[in-house]
Design brief:
The chain has 266 residues and is an alpha+beta fold. 27% of the residues lie in helices and 29% in strands. The N and C termini lie far apart (39 Å).
Amino acid sequence: MTPEDHAQAATALLHAEATGTQIGLLSKRHPGMGMQDAYAVQNAIYRAKLEQGRHVVGWKIGLTSKAMQYALNIDIPDSGILFDDMVFDHGATVPAGRFIQPRIEAEIAFVMGTAIGGADVTRADVIAATDYVAPSIEILDTRILRADPDTGATRTVFDTISDNAANAGVVLGRERHRVDAFDLRWVGAITTRDRAVEETGLGAGVLNDPVESVVWLARRMAQYGQSIAPGQIILSGSFIRPVECPPGTEIHADFGPFGSVDIAFA
């Protein structure tokens, strides 16, 4: 892909978000695209949103579980950007039409107390930089069709990364914990949709330890001259499969002693 291709793809995705109309697979339009192309499209979206007056409030890490990596035939996570208009309050209702095909995932969120970055970031560095951890829900959406209507081909990881790693929203629970207050590998959630259990999982599903997920993010960002700023939210990765949220859905993620998170969709 050329720089012009990256810019055109970003413009198309921004228009899809604004109008609620999905675009076709970028991987079909550009069959030779790779990881660098995907992040170049995401970065073009990032620059456009800053020009629109948006502010970065954090980062999301995706594809941290082996199951999702096997499904997409990759062996590394991906990342996306959280903007200020993506933050929803615990117990809020997402307005009708805000998203195209929303889904949710349960995750452990890190909120950073100090800046962290560099290619040599360690687990100890992440723990020292973390202000607190909290239960959270990530809202996913897709501005790209999930499957090509002509061939049946499904989105690739390059489509997903280009589309800001399918990121659309974040909801933090009210509870705040020191990062060492729990063994995060054993922090889990029972996630219900309309009072029926849909998914369960444990933090160990995230690269064996959610802290290691944040380590990965900091090191990846260093490759692009970026770092994690104080106060930013880091969604460390889901330990459940995505749960579909059609209109009228009520979601409750029960993390036990760690807390809970609620979100509804009008």
